[in-house]
Design goal:
3 helices, alpha+beta, four-stranded mixed sheet, 30% helix, 28% strand
């Protein structure tokens, strides 16, 4: 499906230890640069149209992995590649590294 500037990805991760989707959602809700959009009852999921023009990356559809079982998660993300792409992430990481160095 073509999108103007906010691609989406279905992601599967494998973890070393058991992981609970609800706990993962709680962590994601507190993460900077992330907006959890996961309300199947209201048909609200990450969507390219909604992510376009937003700095936060939408994350949702967080489920136990059918491949890795209780040691994995499946989820869906959508983000504006012009506002929240690799370049901005690199700048944020560099700013955090400099701040940590100044505080040490």
């Amino acid at each position: 499906v073509p999108t103007l500037r906010a691609p989406s990805e279905a992601i599967t991760i494998e973890t070393e230890e058991k992981i609970d989707p609800k706990e993962a959602l709680d962590v994601l809700k507190g993460a900077t640069g992330v907006k959890v959009v996961d309300d199947p009852a209201s048909l609200k999921y990450p969507m390219p149209l909604n992510a376009t023009g937003e700095y936060d990356v939408e994350v949702g559809r967080v489920r136990q992995s059918i491949v890795f079982g209780d040691k994995g998660l499946d989820f869906f993300v959508s983000g504006d590649q012009l506002l929240r792409g690799a370049a901005l992430n690199a700048v944020i990481i560099a700013e955090q590294a400099v701040a940590a160095r100044l505080l040490a």
